[in-house]
Amino acid sequence: MSSPPVQVRFFGGLGEIGANMATIEVDGRILVLDTGLTFPDAEHHGIDVILPDWSALRERAGDIEAVVLTHGHEDHLGALPFFLRDFPDVPVYGTSLTNGLAESKLTEHSGVQGEFREVAAGERHQVGPFDLEFLRVTHSIPEGLATALHTPHGTVLHSGDFKLDQTPIDAHPTDLPHFAELGDDGIALLLADSTNADTPGHVPSERTVGKTLRQVFGDAEGRVVVTTFASHIHRVQQVVDAAVGAGRKVCFVGRSMLRIMPIARDLGVLDYDDEDVVQLHEVDRLPPQQVTLVCTGSQGEPFAALSLMAAGRHRQVTLDHGDTVVMASSVIPGNESAIYRTINGLTRRGARVVHTGSADVHVSGHAAADELAFFHNIVRAQAFVPVHGEYRHMVAHADIAADCGVPRDRIFVCENGDSVLLEDGDVRVGQSFDAGRVFVDGLGIGDVGDAVLRDRGAMSEEGVCVAVITVDAHARLVGTPQVVQQGVVSAERAEPLITKAAEELATALRGEEDRGSEPSLLRRQAVETLRRYWREQTGRRPVILPVIVDH
Question: Domain residues for 320?
């Protein structure tokens, strides 16, 4: 009896940057590849983080064999604590650094524990029916992995996030000979990173950033503040090296920096001496030209260290003329306004700001178009699904694959909720499923949906009007309703409008009484009356909240 088809399902990370999650099913068992999250933008009012919707897995919880984490970035492991809350007995496979970062995240979630099993590039492991082979890739965090799954129907290769940096900081380039061996043996289906597929050429080596940093440190007169992602350990290493080389002490600022740096150092992927690092309370004792602060806030996050410095609200760091700020990171789409606001605030305080628009202080961790073409010619996959990217990136990657010889009818540009089936080396589109998003707001997980976000958006844009309506036992109006507003008009203009609104509402509701109104009808009448009133008086459409109170 032949084995059932291998099924690959995409829960997140397609058509977007973030929330990466896929599953691969072999012989009735399910392997989860990454459990990432994404962060809210302006339309997600009050939301903290956004998770993939894995509800399609709930009824098959007993079939989940394991989770494999490709690397330690939030968009690949950030949702793990929430996943393990729902599936507590599923073991997690990752490298020592990836597991260390994942375990540290679990400490922020009370009662959530995980069983972590360490793997390394070059190893091969049998996990249930999954024959897994791990390959080293270079990315913007150490210990990135590609994963080859050898199945009864052919090999499925997932590239992970990667680039082809030939001179990486840790001297461990992407293992192209290993990929070539897999290509020689035959790859039935390739899933590969598409983030920079529409960027021509090659991504420069990370070492180019180090050269720029040394120049900046050499020219700096006062303190140097460098902001980058805490997980970009290679970037932090270059900052530390440049600072120490310029005779400066290094101070790590921000919760994620203080959490990740000791882990990276203990695992041997970050190198510095204790004597070269100082605590934040020690900084003011040193001359400015001997200080380097490495902090969070590269994306203009409101409460991150750099944003607070830019606003003059950081409790312990006040920037001054002569200080230099280096924003050593990319601009994530959607964050432009917050980043430029931060740059303006820093400049107002007299700091010199060095960013990607003015100097080579960032290189991407994802392969550009020419690197992807080279990669395709190495692995020579029989079928291809572009992953990890916005839709335009995936289409561009599909074109690259076609130019490299993958037949167009064997290239599948998928979206979240799609699946593909692999059977006897042949790949076809499978059945789709619901793969939405789960919003985390405070302690609530999934209790805020699109309707609530629409209400929050309306309140933020148009304001809110509350009408307190007192009724007797027969649902008849008692007295005049109380009407209050927030965010519709200014306080100076509000009083006459509120008085008239209450009068018109009372007249409308008493008209309902004559028809033997029910509380629900009164509520609907209140909404219609006030909505019409505010539209006529102001041209605005506030959210109307009627409150019925029994007398």
Answer: 207-354
- Closest C-alpha among 178, 168, 243, 236 to residue 207: 168
Query: pLDDT tens-digit profile of 45-96?
Result: 455 678 899 999 999 999 999 999 999 999 999 999 999 999 999 999 999 9
Secondary structure letter of residue 4 according to DSSP: P
The most distant pair of C-alpha atoms in the chain lies apart, rounded to whole Å, by: 86
Q: How many other β-carbons are positioned within 10 Å of the β-carbon of residue 114?
A: 20
Residue 184, number of CB atoms within 10 A of its CB: 11
CATH of the domain at 236: 3.40.50.10710
Distance CA 470, CA 551 (A): 6
Q: What is the DSSP string of 245-272?
A: HTT-EEEEESHHHHHHHHHHHHTTSS--
Whether residue 225 lies inside any domain: the answer is yes
159 lies in the same domain as 187: yes
Which pTM value belongs to this model? 0.82
H helix intervals, 318-390? 336-348, 369-379
**CB-based contact 379:191 (threshold 8 Å):** no
Decide if 389 contacts 193 (C-beta within 8 A).
yes
- 196 with 227, same domain: the answer is no
**Pair 147, 249 in one domain:** no
